[in-house]
Amino acid sequence: MRPTTAGHEFGEVIGALGEQPGGGELLRMGRAREDLALVGGAVRDLLLGRTPRELDVVVAADAAGFARELAADLAPGAAQAPSATLHERFGTAVVEWETGRVDIAERRAETYSAPGALPQVRPGTTEEDLRRRDFTVNAIAVPLGGPLLGEIISAEHALEDLRAGRLRVIHAHSFTDDPTRLLRLARYRARLGFECEELTAELARAALVSGALDTVSRARIGAEVRLALGETEAIAALSAIGELGVLRALEPRLRLREPLARRALALLPADGRPEELLMASLLLELSQSSVGDPDAAMFEFLDGLEFTAAERERITRSALAAPSLTREMELAERPSELHETLCAQTLEAIALAAAMDRGGPAGRASEAAREWFERLRHVRLQITGEDLLAAGIEPGPQLGRLLALTLARRLDGELPDGRRAELDAALQARV
Ligand code: CTP
After folding, report:
1. What pLDDT, in 10s, does the model give residues 30-52?
2. In testing the pocket of ligand 1, which one of 133, 176, 217 has its CB within 8 Å of the most ligand atoms?
3. What structural domains does the chain harbor?
4. Class of residue 207 by CB neighbours under 10 A (exposed 0-12, middle 13-18, buried 19+)
């Protein structure tokens, strides 16, 4: 989607801001000070007629003090007291409440001592604060107070790029200074539907070829990957990251099979984990690799990106299981067999396996997955081990076996409803 005049006219940012959660409070606070300005993604989105995810503002100094003041100002209208998180070392703060979020930063200039290093910062002017940013469309500020209230202050090309739907870095070192911007570029392309300006595309390619991604920690890359996974159009974001060559640079055996990922996401039930499904789909090829130890390679990759131990376990398990699960799902003839095949599998592995069904969306494995997700996995016996003990069955492994046999009959429709029928069936199954 390209920006059109359907977005807010330039100069109308103040009006649009007033309609955002926290916007009225910011405008009121701006009246009492000259340094407060709206910047970054918030200005970009308001100019495009989009709803910003949060409001980004800058102040000349004391972001923490401003955050406390804002939180106090918001408190009377909020159901729960707004929280102010302060990062005094970085000169940033976040104020968050049920319906909104404001990111506050002190205006600054940044220098990078080495490619990929965290920047050294010092207080800066509004212009310097814009020049430190990633893309021109993010380098627009609108003062919320003082003589320039409501004016647009922007980096060179920013407004024309916003109108044209173009992503352009502010200077030639942008990607080498901060290679996580390669992933941000892809994310914005997918979310905003913007094109990449030619020189910017060349700079991105050159940074990748020169190994820029190796100069930043995998943890910082992981944070960007998670942001991509959290995008509304996450597959488009991953696809843009892949097109740029970032996936290959991170791990040569990562593959995004877009139609497969889309089919799997469409099948995944609401209590599934779409982010984990997408990571597992990226790892499918690696999981089946006959070179080295795929298990260890997947673990190392996910660990580097700082996925938690539980996430790593589920993602690798899904990637390893899905390919062989398709056939097993096709072969299961009775609901009880499907239960046996699927009861220990993740929802993500099952959705992926169904999406790999060569028979297509109406194929057998997809049908089996739907039946499992919608009905079979929710079937529970009304009796428990306690009931069997009360009926005189000896404690021991036999209890579990009898319950499993009864559940199988229940799933296969062989038992009428009710506890009595289940108990009778369990007792009959005794040897
Ligand atoms: N920024 C940057 N380089 C980065 C991260 C952030 O230059 N590696 C700058 C950008 O100017 C960005 C601003 O910091 O606009 C705020 O960052 P963030 O909140 O991550 O981005 P938004 O532009 O607000 O985008 P989103 O809509 O995704 O929140």
Report:
1. 999 999 999 999 999 999 999 99
2. 133
3. 4-164 (3.30.460.10), 176-306 (1.10.3090.10), 318-374 (no CATH), 385-428 (no CATH)
4. buried
